[in-house]
Predict the 3D structure of the following.
Amino acid sequence: MGSNAIPPPIVRRKIGRLLTALVVGVLGSAAVLVAPQTSHAAESTLGGAAAQSGRYFGTAIASGRLNDSTYTTIAGREFNSVTAENEMKIDATEPQRGQFNFTAGDRVYNWAVQNGKQVRGHTLAWHSQQPGWMQSLSGSALRQAMTNHINGVMGHYKGKIAQWDVVNEAFADGTSGARRDSNLQRSGNDWIEVAFRTARAADPAAKLCYNDYNVENWTWAKTQAMYAMVRDFKQRGVPIDCVGFQSHFNSDSPYNSNFRTTLQSFAALGVDVAITELDIQGASATTYANVTNDCLAVPRCLGITVWGVRDTDSWRPEHSPLLFNGDGSKKPAYTSVLNALNAASPAPSPGSGQIKGVGSGRCLDVPGASTTDGTQVNLWDCNNRTNQQWAYTAAGELRVYGNKCLDAAGTGNGTKVQIYSCWGGDNQKWRLNSDGSIVGVQSGLCLDATANGTANGTLIQLYSCSNGSNQRWART
Ligand code: XIL
């Protein structure tokens, strides 16, 4: 292999790859090796273009429109993720207390899966669209009903949902930063964390999201209140994996370019972010491109979902806020989103090789070719031996010797980075970024050669990302 730093291999990613990643995620890790390519052709659909950077592009689907062939043709072609617009909500899935009904939810779910799409679950605990019986409950009876509901719905879809919106819209609008008043809030301030703990136990495979609107502008009190809650949850170990930004932009809640700061700030807390219900009054092509680029700028932004297919399908048709006209033709905003997605740097390909420090010119190495769990990795002269061969899997692991994983022994600055038997945890998943940094998925911290060391034996740790040459790596 050449002695110069080589950028990470790039490859065109397709929906099939996204599905591979999902399947690998569910079935446990497997090293899927794909020959690297150095360029990628422009994709012609939103989902395909999003997948080339490892993301999805989704839409809300309404079960009642699934017999409209214009609708299903566009939705089937363009999107690789689906959210049921109303069919998995509380009133739809538990119309009578204890009697679950998944007819409409399953219709949306089955259409999505039969057409090769992943599914976001929406939503389990919410003040709105509660069935009458739940609206009239309070206190511990409501708390019990909430956990029963989460268990019932998540149990039905167990292992089938990529992300669940566990709690929706729990903060008040305006400048108070307070929780929204609701029967759920009055059942006790801990209702949100109880919902998340219940959800984790009900389906450990699903990513658990908090979802809200008017939280895109970093300066707004509601955004800051949500941020404080997520930070607190991460500090206290309440299971939360992602934050959904509904992103219903309109004249009362306009897009602001500080949305990117918001997404970055939440990601830095150690959660994924997603744009979950995007629509923009007037559908400015520029604003749509800006929102898309904000997601693409944040490695932990999983993808974008628009809240409907055509303007006539929108919950706010008078805003003409979507990417397709009522006749099914593409709007200018469609093209601006597609072009932005195609311009994004491709996700690093799965593949195997050495990982060379840009500052040191030395390779990520397991000392003494040890296979013992807990052995801290170091820098060593590149020699192409098996203790320097790292396979980047579709699940995001860096495997050595086939069954050992690069593993963070904690989440703080100075945490030792070691090898450990692969088990699928987030402390064994890594993001290989186009700037050469390698970021721990659990910690959000960078793989770092300690104290800027470049010599043989320099130990590898986690540290806040600085883009220093001791934190940049090339796969060779
Ligand atoms: C909306 C649906 O689009 C409508 O069909 C329904 O009548 C009301 O709900 N925030 C959410 C979504 O989380 O569930 C809402 O969807 C829009 C606002």
In short: The chain has a mean pLDDT of 91.
